[in-house]
Amino acid sequence: MAYPSVSGPYGLIPINLIGGQVFASATRLIPIATNSSTAIFFGDVVKLASTGTLAKDVGTDTATPVGVFLGCSYTDPTFGKTFRQFYAATTNITDIVAYVQDDPDALFKVAVVSATTTIGFVTRANVGENAVLVQNAGSTITGNSKVAIDDGTGTTATFPIRIVDVIAETQSASGSFTEVVVKWNAPTSNSVGGHQYLQPTGI
Predict the structure, then answer these.
(1) What is the pTM of this model?
(2) Does the pLDDT at position 201 exceed 90?
(3) How far, in Å, CA of 61 to CA of 20, rounded?
(4) In principle, which of 10, 96, 120, 173 could form an S-S bond with 114, CB 3.0–4.6 Å?
(5) Which residues of 142-155 are buried (b: 16+ CB within 10 A; e: fewer)?
(6) Using CA atoms, how far apart are residues 183 and 161, in angstroms rounded to an integer?
(7) What is the pLDDT of residues 166-200, one digit of tens each?
(8) How far is CA 182 from CA 17, 77, 88, 121, in A?
(9) Residue 169: what are its φ and ψ, rounded to 5°?
């Protein structure tokens, strides 16, 4: 069976840990503030706010993520305990918690775009380079993110994403790839960009 063609971005999907560590797909429960104004979709990049609650990380070249959003739950006044693929903005409930893949060593599968949601490509020569996030609004129909990485990779230290591999099944006849495996970068010496848990001065 052929690998499905990549028609658009779908967020960051956790697949493993760097170095072949045992991957149990564990998540951390982090609260979302009541009436938080920004929707968060499955696969979106998220960060800890100064209040200790979760927020969508809308950064691109200097994002400071704590991880990736994998759904949420709360007590609906009508239906009771409710699980959602995405957090709808301004949900007026006090016990909303998000499921977050927050491991700094996590590896993710992600689509490459040339602009917004237009699928782009990289080559194997781009493995080891850094990339920026491309922020797109998620789908309220599927609940899924449309975040991707830009195909303009480089060595800028503040870029939040490092490409560690390509998805071989997406190779084109010209030898390019539309999906890659990525990990979080560490923050720079002045605490710009990179995973929040690795910030030397705290969050």
Answers:
(1) 0.95
(2) no
(3) 28
(4) 120
(5) ebbbbbbbbbebee
(6) 6
(7) 999 999 988 999 999 999 999 987 778 899 999 98
(8) 10, 39, 27, 14
(9) -65, -15
